[in-house]
Amino acid sequence: MSRPEAQAPAEIYYGDSEAQKYTSNTRNQRIQAEMTNRAIELLALPPDESLFLLDIGCGSGLSGEILDELGHVWAGVDIAPSMLQVALEREVDGDLFLQDISQGFGFRPGSFDGAISISVLQWLLTSPTSHPTNSPPARLSRFFTTLYAALRNPSRAVFQFYPETDDQITLITSVARKAGFGGGIVVDYPNSKKARKVFLCLMVGSGKYASNT
Amino acid sequence: MVRLITHNLLACHVRGCTSNNFPLVFKDVQLQLKEAEYNPDFLRGFMPKLEWKALVDTAKSLNNQSLPDQAPEPQAANEEFLKILHHVLLEIHVEEGAMLCPNCSHVYPISNGIPNMLLQEHEL
Ligand SMILES: [Zn+2]
Known about the structure:
With 213 residues, chain A is of the alpha/beta class. Chain A has 8 helices and 7 strands. In chain A, strands 3-2-1-4-5-7-6 form a 7-stranded mixed β-sheet, with helices on both faces. In chain A, helix 7 (136-150) packs across helix 8. Chain B has 124 residues and is α+β, with helices and mostly antiparallel strands. Chain B is built from 4 helices and 4 strands. Chain B has helices at 4-7, 40-46, 52-61, 79-90; strands at 25-33, 92-100, 107-111, 114-115. In chain B, strand 3 and strand 4 form a beta hairpin. Chain B is globular. At the A-B interface, strand 2, helix 6, strand 3 and helix 7 of A face helix 2 and strand 4 of B. Zinc ion binds at residues 12, 14, 17, 21, 101, 103-104, 106 of chain B. Chain B: One of its GO terms (biological process) is rRNA (guanine-N7)-methylation. Chain B: InterPro entries: Trm112, Trm112-like. Chain B: Belongs to the TRM112 family. Chain B: Interacts with TRM9.
């Protein structure tokens, strides 16, 4: 079967039945938890501090629950109402927003101490219409520019995603750099077709948090 | 759910709407109070991010007058103040209603506690 992002926009693909299926599937839960834990590790947050984080494409809140357990407070955005509905039913702690990340954010400068995003970025490489405002570079640019502004300096944003080609990685990293980010790609298990995981680790400033403790 | 902790960070993101676009004004709201875990260290760390006047005014618009006009320095904040701040930021949930941009009048509807931040193509 072809990839979800090649079939339909996320808000259509993750309709009511897909949202339920995705969330209750234990294999999905386990993989999502593994990727979330790895993304949090790559965020390199100062230990023992309770921070304010953004979950980009929070879905039904599977990653958010892990942030809760670690004592962080978070806000989540997602384009799929059905996924957010499942998050509500599961009574996650984060504030939820129905948002198309390709339209950019309105969060004030320095709002978040970090951001994570699991299996979302590849959706920005699709174009819902042929209008120039919907080209992948335009979508990526609105997203990265407004995300950069919304993050505190220094901090990090870590994205696990599924690129199909090296050109896609090049496009994503070049738009992120133009928006001001440093950082780059981390590949886990590069030699295993099945276990291979790609993370984009972006940094604002030095990306190194100075701990208060 | 939308609480004042995220409302206080949120400006209008319609293209070209770059001044007087904060804070968004709550309209026709239905509120729910839900207890949240009190964490003074989180609150002290979060305080520098707040636009204090916007927070005080918005809380008042939701019939909460408990905040002082001036915020103390985070390290000088006492328990009494932090408990009030905790309640205002984290325990008042806006479940229904809308947020209105004071500049361009874009309406962000809130349904089931979730604000709809989607824009039309001409607003990008
Ligand atoms: Zn506006």
